[in-house]
Amino acid sequence: MDLNIIAGALMIAFAALGAAIGNGNLFGKYIEGIARQPEAQGKLFSQTMILFGLIEALPIIGVALGILLIFGVIG
Fold first, then answer.
1. pTM of the full predicted structure?
2. Residue 35: pLDDT above 70?
3. How far is CA 38 from the centre of its chain?
């Protein structure tokens, strides 16, 4: 079995796992913040969406590199 396929699969798996953990923490704290201070919902929502985009950027890069490894473009 080619090691590039294993490396690509691991990159995709850990990218998905990292995004899931990060998003879970982010939205959990968002809901906790709204529960504590409901009048700050608008400000919290905009900050949450900005952070959501930043959290999702790295897993997308990881998945892209994993696919490139699997198909032998790099490595």
1. 0.81
2. yes
3. 27
